[in-house]
Amino acid sequence: MIPSGERCGVRRRRTSAGVGTVRASWSGSCRLTWACAYAVIGMAALGAFIGRAAAATPGAAAVTPTATVTGEVTVNGFSYSGGKLPFGSLVDLVHGTITMKTGVGTVRASGVGRITAAFVLLFTHVDGEPYVELRLAEGNFSVCPKRTTSGTSSASAKVIRALWGSGMGNFQTSGRFAAATVRGTHWLTDDRCDGTWTDVARGVVDMTSFRTGKTVAVHQGHTFLVFS
To answer: Was domain 64-227 assigned CATH 2.30.30?
Structure first.
């Protein structure tokens, strides 16, 4: 037992991040008895737990991504050779590919032939979990035929912009009419005149219609079109 009049306790100190660090301390001539030793060990374990919990917060997931590229890639209209890639950037895969390391995983994005392949890099949440979103951008939709009461022409299947994605982690590609949400897969997202289309080469993609809110799970080897 701790001798009478001598104390063995702990102090909590708050950091600038708002996470409390825990220190063990004793006053007077307190000897490190078994009781005090258990208190020190227990508080050290608690401090380690708090540190791990802080690292797992959404703030850690929102860290600025870094990227490497092959071929010709531009960011916000300027040639890009790699490095930090802030959220909100407009990435144009003119004739190249980009591999992004983010707080939610790593993903590689590339285009399809000479079709527009551009996206805005965003940080978002899906069902409360942190995700990195690649929102398709640019492309000339004025070439799409107008709908008629008799239906649409075959030209409505024309692809305006497209993006391949491959990686592991929480990622989402968004087109004009739907979003494709993945956790680790290889998938294609097309924005066509008649809707947003996905082709799943590996894994599973959850395709959600912006118009109806309905979500469909698209498995490997299958495609799905969310109509405009």
So the answer is: no
Tokens of 69: 């590229």
Residues pairing with 99 in the sheet: 68, 108
- Kindly give the residue spans of alpha helices, DSSP state H, lying in the chain: 34-55, 58-61
Q: Which two tokens stand for residue 209?
A: 């219609």
Structure tokens at 50: 């708090």
Query: Where do the domains of the chain lie?
Result: 8-56, 64-227
End-to-end CA distance of the chain: 75
Six token digits for residue 56: 């797992």
Q: Which amino acid type is present at position 227? A: F
Instruction: Say how far apart CA 147 and CA 192 lie, in whole Å.
Output: 14
Q: Which helix (H) or strand (E) holds 107?
A: strand 105-110
Q: What contacts 165, CB < 8 A, 6 or more positions away?
A: 107, 108, 109, 134, 171, 173, 182, 185, 186, 187, 188, 189
Is the pTM higher than 0.90?
no
Instruction: Give pLDDT tens digits along the chain (228 positions).
Output: 444 444 444 344 443 334 444 344 434 444 444 444 444 344 444 344 333 333 334 567 789 999 999 999 999 999 999 999 999 999 999 899 999 999 999 999 999 988 999 999 999 999 999 999 999 999 999 999 876 655 545 558 899 999 999 999 999 999 999 999 998 899 999 999 999 999 999 999 999 999 999 999 999 999 999 998
